[in-house]
UniProtKB/TrEMBL annotation:
Bilayer disposition of the protein: Multi-pass membrane protein
Claim: Kinase is one of the keywords in the record: no
PANTHER family, alphabetized: PROTEIN DETOXIFICATION 44, CHLOROPLASTIC, PROTEIN DETOXIFICATION 44, CHLOROPLASTIC-RELATED
Superkingdom in the source lineage: Bacteria
Protein name per UniProt: MATE family efflux transporter
Pfam families, alphabetized: MatE
Annotated compartments: Membrane
Electron transport recorded as keyword: no
Stated family: Belongs to the multi antimicrobial extrusion (MATE) (TC 2.A.66.1) family.
Transmembrane spans: 7-32, 38-60, 81-103, 123-142, 154-175, 187-206, 243-265, 271-294, 306-326, 346-366, 373-392, 398-418
Alphabetically ordered keywords of this record: Membrane, Transmembrane, Transmembrane helix
Chief localisation class: membrane
């Protein structure tokens, strides 16, 4: 169990670091004025959408690296990180080239106010230069989770964001050695902080060169295999975005109080999702290693343990939210209409958490097993069959927030049925058999085998 805790804690710190920094950034820029705050909000939204669609660099790389690592093939695991980093650099440069030129158009399309759009475009044109190294960091997190390295990623992320925090406060408002750059100061702080983190991850990958036989050139076969998984994960991520954007659009048609209440409950949900996602990441790494080591039984043992921990954690949080139902929403808003409206999504949120504990854990298990195609299909089906029909039916019949959150509940229940069925089928627990020449380590084939799982589970 300690190995699960170590991996989950490391992943949680990395997951929450960026949102916490964003809160600071919003607070600092907010003192400049409403226009700058609005521009920053839209600019960070654009970057968030880009990064969300490219999370395959982390999750896909973790699954493939963990398989290699579990087979005793650390060189192969690192090779996956090398190839993912090549994808990150290429994709990042393409995004910079396209995004810099189209930033004004993107902002005008999203923001009707010309002044806010202009400020947002200026911020985005600076911040977008950090994207290549943001993507390198994502690939770095992927392969390091795969080889079950927990502490260095935390240090790298915290180091970069610590520098960004100091620069954000100094460059936005000026003082001491810092010039006053206003909103542009926020963008430069983002670039520097993300660049430091990305370079630290790149340095960690480079240091592996002294202890391994990994070929550092791009290899079409591995990149192609990674992009196949990327296709599935991008489609899955897009279905999430489609659902939550639809929910926000329908909530906006009711009242200002309904929108505010929906957003408060959704932000709490998204924060708690990070907690559960950290356990899913631990499952992904350990299951991939188990299957790579030839132990389907070990993978099933990890799946059971992580699911129990995830459901237990979700249940404890649900009890705390229920006990604080009359107090906690007041931390986010004091408007009586909003507080009256939030009761409905709040209790739906409480009911959803134990279900989410199972779904998130099994998502991690299946991702670790490389079952991304199944997860893509299951998530799209849940969105098209459950979430979206209920969302728009809610709008048509005027069911309000109860209808919207019923859609989310149905979405989770369909996913629960799908991943539960897949887990029980055992089709996901396929051990690695190995194929010669499958990774570039001076021409050697991988060390995948059908042997015992060995020590990858550590002291669980």
């Amino acid at each position: 169990m300690r190995r699960i805790a170590d991996l989950a804690f490391s992943a949680l710190i990395v997951l929450i670091a960026a949102p916490l920094y964003l809160l600071l950034d919003l607070a600092v820029v907010g003192r400049l004025g409403a226009r700058e705050l609005a521009a920053l909000g839209v600019g960070t939204l654009v970057l968030a959408v880009l990064s969300t669609q490219l999370t395959f660099l982390t999750y896909g790389t973790t699954a493939r690296s963990a398989r290699r690592f579990g087979a005793g093939d650390r060189d192969g695991a690192v090779a996956e990180g090398v190839q993912a980093t090549w994808i990150a650099v290429a994709a990042g440069m393409a995004i910079v080239a396209v995004g810099y030129g189209t930033a004004p158009w993107i902002m005008r399309a999203l923001v009707p106010d010309p002044a806010v759009a202009a400020d947002g475009a200026g911020w985005l044109r600076i911040a977008i230069f950090g994207v290549p190294l943001i993507l390198v960091s994502m690939a770095g997190n992927g392969w390091m989770r795969g080889v079950q390295t927990t502490r260095p990623p935390v240090v790298m992320v915290v180091a970069g964001l610590s520098v960004a925090t100091v620069l954000c406060v100094g460059l936005v408002h000026g003082g001491g050695p810092f010039p006053r750059l206003g909103l542009d100061g926020s963008a430069w702080a983002n670039v520097v902080g993300q660049s430091i983190t990305g370079l630290l991850f790149a340095g960690a990958l480079w240091r592996e060169r002294t202890d391994s036989d990994v070929d550092w050139r791009p290899h079409r076969a591995i990149i192609g295999a990674q992009l196949v998984m990327a296709r599935d994960l991008i489609a899955r991520s897009a279905s999430f975005q489609m659902c939550f954007l639809s929910a926000a659009a329908v909530a906006a048609r009711y009242s200002v109080a309904a929108v505010a209440a929906h957003q408060v409950a959704l932000q709490v949900w998204e924060f708690l999702s990070l907690l559960l996602d950290s356990l899913a990441i631990a499952a992904q790494s350990l299951v991939g290693a188990a299957l790579g080591g030839g132990s389907a039984a070990g993978a099933r043992a990890v799946a059971r343990r992580v699911t129990v921990v995830s459901v237990g954690t979700a249940t404890v949080v649900a009890v705390l939210l229920a006990a604080g139902a009359g107090v906690l929403p007041r931390l986010f808003n004091s408007d009586p209409q909003v507080l009256g409206a939030i009761a409905v999504p709040w209790w739906f949120l409480i009911a959803l958490l134990p279900i989410a504990g199972i779904v998130f854990a099994l998502d991690g298990v299946l991702l670790g097993a490389g079952d991304a195609a199944f997860l893509r299909t299951a998530t799209l089906a849940a969105a098209l069959v459950a979430f979206l029909p209920l969302i728009w039916t809610s709008h048509f019949f005027g069911w309000g927030l109860a209808g919207i959150w019923s859609g989310l509940l149905a979405f989770m229940l369909v996913r629960l049925a799908a991943v539960g069925w897949r887990y029980r089928s055992g089709e996901w627990a396929r051990v690695s058999t190995g194929r010669a020449g499958d990774h570039p380590a001076k021409g050697r084939g991988p060390a995948w085998h059908d042997g015992r799982y060995g020590n990858a589970l550590g002291d669980q």
